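Deviation from plan, reported transparently: coenzyme A complex.
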Amino acid sequence: MHRCFIRFAGQGWQCSVRCMSSAVRRRKALRSAFPVLDLPLQPIQRHVYEANLRNSHACLKKYTELKEKVKKGGGDIGIARHTQKNRKLLVRDRLRLLLDDDDYLELSSFAGLDLPYGDIPAASCLTGVGRINGLWCVFIANDATVKGGTAYPITVKKQLRAQQVAIQNRLPCIYLVDSGGAFLPLQSEIFPDKNHGGRMFYNEAIMSAMKIPQVAVVCGSCTAGGAYVPTMAEEAVMVHQIGTIFLGGPPLVKAATGEEVTPEALGGATLHAEVSGCVDHFAWDEKEAFNYTRNIISTLNFQLPEEEEDASKRESEEPRYNSEDLLGLAPQSYSHSLDVKMVVSRLTDGSRFQEFKARYGTSLVTGFAKIHGQLVGIVANNGVLSYEAALKGSHFVQLCDQRDVPLLFLQNTTPAAAATLSTTQAEVNSNCLKAQASMMSAVACATVPKITVVIGGCHGADSFAMCGRAFDPNFLFLWPNARVSVTAPGYVGSLLPPDDEQEEDLNEKLKEESSAFFSSARMWDDGVILPQDTRKVLRDSLDIIRQQQYQLSTERQQSVLLRM
Ligand code: COA
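Because the crystal trials were delayed, the predicted structure below was used instead.
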């Protein structure tokens, strides 16, 4: 017997009564067979498919280039300083010691690239969700090869988003701290406001009170604000000769008192483990620190059923079509969109799909499917979000909410509508507006988990009804071909007074600013994923979301109070 769970508004699932084991439930669920979507590529679709494929390959090239760039972190000088002078492990090697394997869900790896204030690889901080002893945990790991791991505005945004992922999905949060604190030249953009640096410490307290575990590993400098990350954590590990915690470093002491002091004596692991009590575990080296951390995770109050520990081995039917087909289905523009059910059929178990309202509002496709055995409600654009389509979307979202079925939105929204030139048109438009508002309301109020994948365009208000970032999905990913802007490039003509030059400039700007990479650099999403990897990313995201069912006690209490 295992626990079974109910949902409280805005709180995800919480345990309530005991019922039959989840394994038994899943075996029974597998027997239900939804109809197969029999949608091979037709000869007539070939030219659109080929054009999309060419575009996908160009996007893939850019994606690979950026991945390479991000992998190099702060470059050769930063790496040499980090590994040779400071004798520290690189952030990805640290993750290798911390996590069960390399198979983690990295978030927003392109954040920080090509920003007005420079190129900040991975925003100087890796974030993601990985397994430790089978348990999904969020990690927030500074990369000190990038300007000493200092926090730029985009770093703060990335760290806060990772905490938000931990809060929304009730995931333990591990901080690998190695940071020189605020990047001082941009201090006014990261210090005083609500969603600036201090919010991270506030969140640590709130999360602890929500029984979302907070663990810190001090494996580098924690200076000034950075000193609060481990001291606000519930449990902290610190590495000898590598970790330091102080508000002001040795140069500041020298300036203030004239005293010469080493970093280790001022705020090293010995001092904080033996005298101040700021940390709870003294580790001789990084390897030992990560072993301690993995053991700390084993003391958390989660109890995973055996089959949850390795979702990749879970029994499920593969789609009947090759996932590589998705590269030719990823629309290079709205006018290159093929039937979205072809996309659905390349993502779902056995290409099966139980369509809902198949004959009504057909420019939106809604229905149930399984992804690696997990039931989801799919809402996918297949044209304009018309009056009927929006009403249908609203109905289906409420249905899923009623049944506690997570929602998957596949976004490919339409470019801006043409100007309203008649009263009939005005009536159609206002009815559509009301139906879209109803769908937005249904999406905003649905308390089931939501995952959004932008498979094409994300433009204007359709993005809200389709659970764009402003509507708070648990995860939001983009395909590399995706375009994100208030209106699509090439569609501004109807919105402006006639002026060829202005229109051309604006279209050019929209083209540049709407690319998936521009969006992801600014953290408007959780990262760019490849179409052919989508099914795996969805499997992991769904697994991550459902893990909260296995926390034994979630009642809110006080945060763990500190080492006084
Ligand atoms: N703001 C802006 N730049 C900073 C910085 C900060 N807070 N801290 C470090 N940097 C920069 C350095 O200027 C250097 O830049 P460069 O690569 O262009 O030369 C780079 O980060 C690495 O710093 P460096 O001191 O060479 O490396 P290190 O490994 O010897 O030391 C720190 C790293 C973080 C321990 C050390 O730089 C430090 O103590 N910084 C100041 C921390 C501080 O007082 N923060 C207060 C913020 S509120």
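The longest helix spans residues 46-71. We consider this an acceptable substitute for the interim report.
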